[in-house]
Write a structure and sequence with these properties.
mainly alpha, MetI-like_sf, MetI-like, single chain, 15 helices, globular, MetI-like fold, 354 residues, 2 domains, transport
């Protein structure tokens, strides 16, 4: 297993390289980059100034009415680093990425690394606690549904799961705000933010209470919108294992039902759940957080990446994509290690899976 882990770690480097190549190429051909936006804003400002002095491009030599000069356009291109060919800019970016230097944001005037570290606590808070709650609720629920397949409990909870599966998390977020955050009924929870303004003045216990008080509604919205699919997956994975020969053999040996279910069935059924764990965690931590961050005004990585795409803030786009990709690859490797820990019969090295 050690050889496999080392090979996977080495493969992360070319994987990140090719992903960065693809992202860089796509961004270069996308219209409306930072240079175009800056030129458009500068020309709009000049047209406004020309209108104030009552001149136009047709009847005046006033430069502001004619648009930007070529020299000013070259200065804007140099400001954003676009005065160099694409391959040189890509080479400089790769060189900086080796030291985790993601550059400086075009529009926030801060290093991208600093922005990511500033936004990380919000995304980690939402992703970590929601993931724990979703798995803590969905897996036992799915197992119980499998054990009572077709009975009253299974049919009743299927209706709840259908609602949770069909309704997006941000819709639950809006409903929770309306009912419990001062929308139309009760004001039991704060409307926005991760902590209160006086957070630093609170005691340790007060800080913990304030932190979870602010997280209550966002976490509840994410859990309601995210646990249904995992519960269904757990149920049908468990059901598939229930009727396999090894289960009947274990029961024939006189093993207790609890030992059969959790010592044999669960170990095999959980492999299917583990297969989708990296994608699920990346989705919950970053993609799934986006609308929750917008609704509850939580300034996290999801919102940072979304704003960067809208503004064509290339350093932030590449930096967040790099972090998301790296975390996804590391999570995939961790899941492979867990596969073998759960079922020692799995041997990636002998199968040549690298």
């Amino acid at each position: 297993m050690g050889t496999y882990i080392l090979k996977r770690l080495f493969l992360i480097i070319p994987t990140l390289f090719f992903i960065l190549c693809i992202n860089f190429a796509v961004i270069q051909i996308a219209p409306g980059g930072p240079v175009e936006r800056a030129i458009e804003q500068a020309e709009s400002f000049q047209r406004l100034q020309a209108a104030k002095v009552g001149v136009s491009a047709e009847n005046s030599n006033y430069q502001g009415a004619k648009g930007l000069s070529q020299e000013m356009i070259h200065q804007i291109e140099a400001q954003y680093g676009f005065d160099q060919p694409a391959y040189i800019r890509f080479g400089v970016m790769l060189k900086n990425y080796v030291t985790l230097d993601f550059g400086v944001s075009f529009f926030k005037d801060k290093p991208v690394t600093q922005l990511i570290l500033e936004k990380m606590p919000v995304s980690v808070s939402l992703g970590l606690w929601s993931s724990l709650l979703i798995y803590f609720i969905a897996i036992p629920l799915g197992i119980k549904k499998a054990k009572q397949h077709g009975l009253w409990f299974d049919k009743t909870t299927s209706l709840i799961l259908a609602i949770g599966y069909a309704v997006p998390a941000f819709v639950f977020a809006i409903l929770l705000i309306v009912f419990f955050a001062g929308g139309s009924y009760f004001q039991w929870f704060p409307l926005q933010g991760l902590v209160s303004d006086n957070f630093q003045q609170l005691s340790l216990l007060g800080k913990i209470q304030d932190y979870f008080w602010h997280l209550s509604l966002p976490l509840l919205a994410m859990v309601l919108g995210g646990f249904a699919s995992l519960a269904y997956l757990t149920k049908y994975s468990f059901l598939e294992e229930l009727n396999k020969p090894y289960v009947w053999a274990a029961r024939a040996k006189g093993l207790s039902e609890s030992r059969v279910q959790y010592g044999h069935i669960f170990r095999n059924a959980v492999l299917v759940i583990m297969a989708g764990l990296p994608e699920a965690l990346v989705s919950i931590f970053f993609v799934g957080n986006l609308f929750i961050e917008i609704v509850f005004n939580l300034d996290g990585l999801g919102l940072l990446g979304f704003e960067a795409i809208i503004q064509r803030d290339y350093p932030v786009i590449f930096g967040t994509l790099f972090v998301f990709t790296l975390l996804g690859l590391i999570l995939r490797l961790i899941c492979d290690v867990l596969y073998q820990w759960i079922d020692p019969r799995i041997d990636f090295e002998s199968r040549g899976k690298y």
